[in-house]
């Protein structure tokens, strides 16, 4: 196969727009829990490992992982699709998946992947080097709605631009040098490659199925998108489960075991994802035996669930909850002393002890200590109301008024109770003499869109790492100046973005570590574009009959090892 080469050669900056909300396949899904009272397990049939029914918090956006950026979509697709490289279960460590080994060139701009042999897609088509190149060329050649940051989020975050050449791209081409050997070419070295390929959006999909069912046929319609037949009905990967059906009326997605899987076959006959948006309803469904598990149980319920005999699996924290500060519409927030005053006003210790889950920690910078480049000696902002008032007075804003935004209709790994967290921070700010104007919106009903558009003054948001890299955290937040914090309006915004870009390009590991430590120090002392709040360990809960599920710090559990005892 000839070299498929991108239009852009070596460029320095790759855009990293933040994750946007995408409306699900059928829009907001509403249904009665009572309508699904009959356990799917009763009608699903038996098998070696039976059927595993999981309570999902929301509907998937679609079933094409390339066009997704939300956890509920990936929860389904990662059981059907596989990547060139994967993450070792229960860790954030890299491991082989569809590629059994990989080797970089001396300059780190050409990577040779040796692929597993004897692998087929669910439609019987062979997985080989040509299929890999077809996937990457499909990603790189997106046009129209498909090239929007809302749909090509992970591509634009990691690889930058597309074949149209308007923006620089990290991707420089793909060549099948043998049936099971492929070369991926980059325009520059980045410390994140090939680990970035573990992200669900870069899963390998059947070129034949994508062509037959017009995978790229996606159109914008108002604030949402209309997806292709492929993305709605025919997702085709190489994974241990294959797509069976999506019953939108009852909010259930069914996968069945891939009997032709190239590796160790799934122990389960099938997996059913049952969409139950309300956390209390998910708990009731678990207690009634209608589902076998669900994610993000309320921390207040952990003890009671364990006493009732359920398994509460607590993951290691790999996230950050922060108070974002947009320096766009409120001139006072452009002042460093004002941002420092807000930081001193917040009692993060009490937030951790009274609201967040057990084993949560106060965050000192914008990613957890387990990530490379963490600096132990950053400036810290202890809770000090008097100091907060003094700084506001010095800045000429003793009568500061701010909007404080928080989301509703959502539970996130880093934000288990948005309303309670909002209430605590509002009280802290008011104690420091700051007038707070509350603004709440549904998570998928305007909140994320407005935050990403820098319309929110102060806002609650967070991030669970996709992999162990500082660039995946602070590079995602501040790697460009067009972001939710509106750092482009600050004199230091471009300096921060450039420093992050430079650090990512450093080949020597120790030198790169030192560069990120310097960036973290500067962010907490000179910039303070956001206030890190907490790192919290999200949990998932399972019936006692469930065995074999390995909790992931990245919240990327796979279900092929699960069994459910009768």
UniProtKB/TrEMBL annotation:
The UniProt keyword set, sorted, is:
Signal, Transport
Q: Which residues belong to any copy of the Solute-binding protein family domain? A: 94-484
Q: Where is the signal peptide?
A: 1-37
GO molecular-function annotation terms?
peptide transmembrane transporter activity
According to its UniProt entry, one GO biological process term is: peptide transport
Q: Which domain of life is it from?
A: Bacteria
Q: Name one GO cellular component term.
A: periplasmic space
SUPFAM superfamilies membership: Periplasmic binding protein-like II
User: Do you know which CDD domains this protein is assigned to?
Assistant: PBP2_DppA_like (cd08493)
Keyword Transport assigned to the entry: answer is yes
What InterPro entries is this protein classified in? Peptide/Ni-bd, SBP_5, SBP_5_dom
So what family is this one in? Belongs to the bacterial solute-binding protein 5 family.
Q: Mind telling me what this protein is named?
A: ABC-type dipeptide transport system, periplasmic component
């Amino acid at each position: 196969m000839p070299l498929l080469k991108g239009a852009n050669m070596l460029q320095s900056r790759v855009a990293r727009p933040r994750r946007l909300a995408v409306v699900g396949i059928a829009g907001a899904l509403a249904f009665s829990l009572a309508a699904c009272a009959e356990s799917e397990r009763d009608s699903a049939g038996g098998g070696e490992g039976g059927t595993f029914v999981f309570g999902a918090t929301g509907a998937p956006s679609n079933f094409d992982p390339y066009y997704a950026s939300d956890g509920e979509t990936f929860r389904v697709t990662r059981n059907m699709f596989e990547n060139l490289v994967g993450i070792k279960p229960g860790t954030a460590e890299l491991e082989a998946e569809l590629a059994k080994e990989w080797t970089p060139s001396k300059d780190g701009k050409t990577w040779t992947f040796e692929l597993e042999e004897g692998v087929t897609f669910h439609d019987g088509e062979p997985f080989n080097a040509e299929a890999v190149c077809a996937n990457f060329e499909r990603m790189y050649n997106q046009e129209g709605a498909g090239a929007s940051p809302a749909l090509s989020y992970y591509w634009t975050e990691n690889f930058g631009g597309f074949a149209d050449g308007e923006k620089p791209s990290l991707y420089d081409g793909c060549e099948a040098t043998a049936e099971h050997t492929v070369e991926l070419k980059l325009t520059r070295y980045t410390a994140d490659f090939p680990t970035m390929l573990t992200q669900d959006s870069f899963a390998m999909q059947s070129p034949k199925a994508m062509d037959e069912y017009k995978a790229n046929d996606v159109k914008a319609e108002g604030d949402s998108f209309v997806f292709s037949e492929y993305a709605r009905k025919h997702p085709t990967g190489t994974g241990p489960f294959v797509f069976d059906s999506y019953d939108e009326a009852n909010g259930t997605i069914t996968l069945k075991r891939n009997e032709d899987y190239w590796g160790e076959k799934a122990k389960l006959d099938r997996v059913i994802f049952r969409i139950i948006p309300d956390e209390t309803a998910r708990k009731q469904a678990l207690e009634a035996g209608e589902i076998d598990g669900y994610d993000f149980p309320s921390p207040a319920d952990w003890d009671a669930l364990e006493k009732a005999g359920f398994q509460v699996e607590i993951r290691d924290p790999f996230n950050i909850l922060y108070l974002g500060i947009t320096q766009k519409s409120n001139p006072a927030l452009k002042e460093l002393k004002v941002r420092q005053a807000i930081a001193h006003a917040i009692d993060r210790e009490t937030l951790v002890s009274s609201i967040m889950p057990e084993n949560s920690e106060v965050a000192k910078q914008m990613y957890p200590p387990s990530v490379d480049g963490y600096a132990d000696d950053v400036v810290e902002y202890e809770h000090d109301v008097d100091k907060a008032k003094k700084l506001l007075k010095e800045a000429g804003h003793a009568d500061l008024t701010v909007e404080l935004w928080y989301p509703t209709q959502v539970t996130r790994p880093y934000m288990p109770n948005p309303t309670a967290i909002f209430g605590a921070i509002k009280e802290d700010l008011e104690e420091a003499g700051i007038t707070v104007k509350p603004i709440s919106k549904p998570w998928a009903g305007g909140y994320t869109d407005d935050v990403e558009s820098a319309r929110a003054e102060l806002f609650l948001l967070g991030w669970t790492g996709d992999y162990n890299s500082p660039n995946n955290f602070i590079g995602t937040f501040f790697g460009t100046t067009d972001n939710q914090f509106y750092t482009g309006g600050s004199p230091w915004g471009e300096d921060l973005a450039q420093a992050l870009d430079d650090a990512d390009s450093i080949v020597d590991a120790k030198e790169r570590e030192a560069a990120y430590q310097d960036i973290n120090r500067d962010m907490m002392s000179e910039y303070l574009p956001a206030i890190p709040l907490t790192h919290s360990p999200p949990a998932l809960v399972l019936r006692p009959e469930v065995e074999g599920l390995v909790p992931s710090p990245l919240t990327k559990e796979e279900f092929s090892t699960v069994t459910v005892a009768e």
